[in-house]
Recover the amino acids of this structure.
């Protein structure tokens, strides 16, 4: 009988395989956890975006409804607004021909209007008269006119008007004249009332 028996290990070597299995197990668990984290992130991110989009859609819907109501109101008022505009224009219009007749009537002898400009707020006229006294006379008459509520004399200038005395002799007489610029504020109600009385 031999002194020593050889040592024979009949069990398989599992050590290396168990390390690989452990590594695979932990890797698998880590991947599952990572996938849950990624899914959770995308879930909450998408949920937040969805809530924001829903809120924006609600606001846009409310704004659309508001604009639709405004449009309906404007369409409903369109006819009445047009009628109001026509009525205002008819009542606001001033009979300028009557005013021009009044301005001409108030002119002193040998005076005439050389310019007339009417705007919505005032009337600007230019009158030619013979003397400064006539300028003062015309200013006084305009001030006392019931159609004029305010008057400003903008300027008074002299100029000469040449009249031909004889075509054959070519002699000219120099006649001094005064050019006066006035700014008038018209009493529109008075003019309108006057026109209404005449129409009746």
């Amino acid at each position: 009988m031999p002194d020593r028996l050889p040592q024979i290990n009949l069990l398989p070597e599992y050590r290396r395989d168990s390390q690989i299995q452990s590594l695979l197990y932990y890797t698998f668990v880590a991947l599952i956890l990572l996938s849950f984290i990624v899914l959770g992130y995308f879930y909450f991110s998408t949920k937040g975006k969805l809530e924001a989009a829903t809120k924006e859609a609600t606001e846009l819907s409310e704004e659309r409804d508001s604009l639709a109501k405004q449009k309906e109101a404007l369409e409903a008022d369109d006819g009445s607004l047009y009628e109001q505009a026509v009525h205002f224009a008819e009542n606001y219009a001033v009979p300028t021909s009557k005013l021009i007749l009044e301005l001409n009537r108030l002119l002193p002898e040998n005076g005439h209007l050389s310019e007339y400009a009417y705007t919505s707020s005032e009337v600007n006229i230019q009158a030619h008269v013979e003397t400064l006294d006539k300028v003062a006379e015309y200013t006084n008459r305009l001030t006392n006119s019931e159609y004029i509520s305010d008057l400003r004399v903008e300027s008074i200038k002299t100029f000469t008007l040449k009249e031909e005395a004889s075509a054959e002799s070519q002699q000219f007489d120099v006649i001094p004249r005064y050019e006066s610029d006035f700014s008038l504020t018209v009493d529109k109600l008075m003019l309108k009332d006057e026109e209404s009385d005449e129409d009746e």
